[in-house]
Design goal:
This protein is α+β, with helices and mostly antiparallel strands and about 575 residues long. The protein has helices at about 35-40, 75-85, 90-100, 140, 155-170, 215-230, 235-245, 250-275, 360, 370-380, 420-425, 435-455, 495-510, 515-525, 535-550, 560-565; strands spanning about 5-10, 15-20, 45, 50-60, 65-70, 110-120, 120-130, 135, 175, 185-190, 195-200, 205, 285-290, 295-300, 325, 330-340, 345-350, 390-395, 405-410, 415-420, 455-460, 465-470, 475-480, 485-490. The chain folds into four domains: about 5-130, Phosphorylase Kinase, domain 1; about 135-280, Transferase(Phosphotransferase), domain 1 (Orthogonal Bundle); about 285-410; about 415-565, Orthogonal Bundle (Transferase(Phosphotransferase), domain 1). Helix 8 (about 250-275) packs antiparallel against helix 10. It is globular and about 85 Å long.
């Protein structure tokens, strides 16, 4: 282990430097992180309120060392208090990175860390590590920027094996990493190289002589949460088999451990989504607050133009060039072409009209429908479910905080039509049955199953609120719209699932384009092979509830022969 040299520079930064790099930190020419940031502003790797990461180079004359510099700042009072009581993040990452290197784990080489204090109070901390070249993140090694697969099957299998071996060595060495995601692994991409994988960002890790099984399971669950985006289920199973290859109890306890990892993964994913949902209600690098002429709200940063505010000042969208598409007592739907980031787009503007009577007081302390739809749209987006993309949401309130007007702006999806029109456009065979309806319903059932699997409940799941378009391969793809009644949960209740299935079933019945047999097929596709035993009971429940709906609407149900023909 190299010795550590202590240096204090003229700016009051106290450095601890690895003795190998001590000549770079002579008292009269220690590197200034802020000056390095100005000189290498074009090499910023990551920037957030909590830290800035950028590439630079430091030298002592003939010797020049490329480094990565991390400047840790206090994003909030809690971070400030934690850093002053428990030590800076730079100090913690230096200690864990050094421990990992001593235990033979592939990671970055630490150069130095420093802390700048004033009157004993920590202001900033800095960490310098040797920069790794010819490396990409694990995500970049697996996928191209356009989302297509970059690594072939043999390369993916090799990466999974190397990754499993690395995590097993890390846990056996007593290193517990609390931020395991593909961005914190660097893969050596040099042609003909060894293809090694390096650990990064150890400021949230801890080192101990040994790691208990519960910490291993938790660490694997966190990795599984992020890996589920990049790796298919069989690939993740191959990873776990490789990780536990030397464990004698793995064969006996495999099902139990995988169930424990899956349960913990779902809880972690839910908490992560709930935290990220709040981004759209704050001023940050993704979104911006709006405040003009009595209006307030939020918009996507870089996509709101100042002249767009003029559309809403007189509450007459027609004067601003918008076209009315649909009108009702509670809301109107308009469309207008705009130019955003140099591209022509069509925006749909949903105008929620002022509430009357007691309903006006209901929104005194709750968000308007526009803001709830805005938050629901982003909640769906971060769960990787297709839906209309919300651009902005604004509301106008009186001086007594009474809601007057609210607007939601969404972007048009090119080539998408509602499900009623999509089924109506399918070609017909000689008997009048839509050609390709089975494949259409199979794709729709898979989409609805994914929506429910990630905890999204749409309170008005009717056919007109599901848009359909053609994917790259010609298969149908679906999008959720009309997000006023979207709610998110860890697990949907059976009542919520049945309600969504009932709404779809009633829409199929109203269309008169989907037969009883095809509606039964849709339910069969939705339940899948694992829940095939629930098919008859669920179908009878839907049939009973549909009867009540038809009775209330004074319509007749199809005869017993049709029911028997459609019985699963």
């Amino acid at each position: 282990m190299p010795k550590v040299v202590r240096v204090k520079d003229a700016r009051g930064i106290r450095w601890r430097v690895s003795s190998v790099f001590a000549p770079l930190f002579l008292a009269d020419r220690t590197p200034d992180p802020r000056r390095l940031l100005k000189a290498h502003a074009s090499e910023i790797i990551k920037k957030s309120p909590a830290r800035i990461i950028f590439g630079a180079a430091i030298s002592d004359g003939p010797r020049r060392v490329p480094v990565v510099v991390k400047i840790y700042r206090h994003a909030n009072p809690g971070e400030w208090l934690k850093a002053n009581l428990c030590g800076s993040k730079a100090r913690r990452e230096w200690r864990i990175t050094t421990a990992a290197a001593e235990r033979g784990l592939p990671t970055v080489v630490p150069v130095a860390f420093g802390e700048r204090r004033r009157a004993g109070i920590l202001r900033e901390s800095y960490l310098l590590t040797v920069r790794l070249f010819n490396c990409v993140t694990l995500e970049e090694a697996l996928f191209s920027p356009d989302g297509t697969l970059r690594a072939g099957a043999p390369e993916r299998r090799r990466l999974i094996a190397v990754l499993a071996a690395l995590l097993r060595r890390m846990h056996d060495s007593g290193i517990y990493h609390r931020d395991l995601h593909p961005g914190n692994f660097l893969v050596e991409s040099l042609p003909g190289g060894q293809g090694r994988i390096f650990l990064l960002d150890l400021h949230r890790a801890s080192a101990s002589p040994s790691l208990p099984l519960r910490h291993r399971i938790r660490s694997l669950a966190q990795f599984n949460m992020f890996a589920s985006i990049s790796l298919a289920a069989p690939e993740r199973l191959r990873f776990f088999n490789a990780y536990f290859a030397d464990d004698a109890l793995w064969t006996k306890e495999k099902r139990q451990r995988l169930a424990e990892i899956d349960l913990m993964t779902r809880g972690m994913r839910w908490r992560l989504w709930r935290r990220r949902e709040q981004r759209c209600l704050d001023n940050n690098k993704y979104f911006m607050r709006l405040n003009f002429a009595g209006f307030s709200g939020f918009a996507r940063r870089g996509e709101w133009k100042g002249e767009m505010a003029g559309l809403f000042l007189g509450h007459d969208l027609a004067e601003g060039g918008a076209a009315l598409l649909k009108s009702s007592r509670s809301k109107d739907l308009w469309s207008r072409g705009v130019e955003i980031q140099g591209a022509a787009r069509t925006l749909f503007i949903k105008h929620y009209k002022p509430k009357r009577g007691w309903k006006a007081f209901k929104y005194l302390w709750r968000r308007s429908q526009a803001l709830r739809s805005w938050q629901g749209a982003y909640a769906i987006e971060i769960r990787n479910i297709r839906a209309v993309r919300a651009v902005a949401a604004i509301e106008e309130r009186s001086f007594m905080n009474l809601l007057r007007h609210a607007y939601l702006l969404t972007e048009e999806i090119a080539g998408a039509v509602n499900m009623v029109d999509a089924i109506g456009r399918l070609p017909r065979d000689a008997s009048g049955r839509p050609v390709g309806i089975v494949a259409f319903l199979r794709s729709l059932a898979g989409f609805l199953r994914r929506v429910h699997a990630v905890g999204i409940y749409h309170g008005d799941m009717k056919a007109t609120n599901v848009l359909a378009a053609r994917g790259r391969d010609g298969s149908p793809v679906f999008f959720l719209t009309d997000l006023d009644f979207v709610r998110t949960r860890l697990d949907l209740t059976r009542r919520q699932v049945i309600r969504n299935l009932l709404q779809i079933n009633k829409s199929f019945l109203d269309l008169r384009l989907v037969s009883v047999r095809d509606r039964a097929r849709f339910l069969k596709f939705y339940l899948g092979p694992r829940r095939r035993g629930e098919l008859r009971a669920t179908w009878r429940k839907l049939e009973r509830k549909t009867r009540r709906y038809l009775k209330r609407s004074r319509r007749r149900f199809r005869g017993a022969a049709a029911r028997r023909a459609g019985r699963p």
